[in-house]
Write the structure tokens for this entry.
Amino acid sequence: MSAPAPWPPPSAFELPPDGYRAVVGESFHQEALAATVPLTTPGEEGRPTFRALLVAEPENPYDANAIAIHSAAGKVGHLSRREAIDYAPVMAALAEHGHSAGLCDAFLNGGPSEGKSFGVVLRLSPPFDCVLEIRASAAG
């Protein structure tokens, strides 16, 4: 039996945190979100926070521009179609500079204890700022 893959992957790049981005499709990933709860730590304003990975999904049958959001427990949602288009240059810059994915903090909202489904918000800068950070890091 092989060892589990490290989380987060060493080839992931830490994206700048100057903004908030909603995640969509969480209703399809409630099991992974529930499994993420024990992985959270108190973050901004005490909100349950976890490390999120942004991964391009070019083989996604519904959207070739899809960007999946993962926790260490699995896929928890996607960027919206509009945001996936906006963040396409970020994913291209990551790949160009040898990174498998982007990494940022994420907040877990709701959940059964609040009588709601889980939701996710990313702590993530606008696309242009992310691309600048990736290029600056590569330059040295």
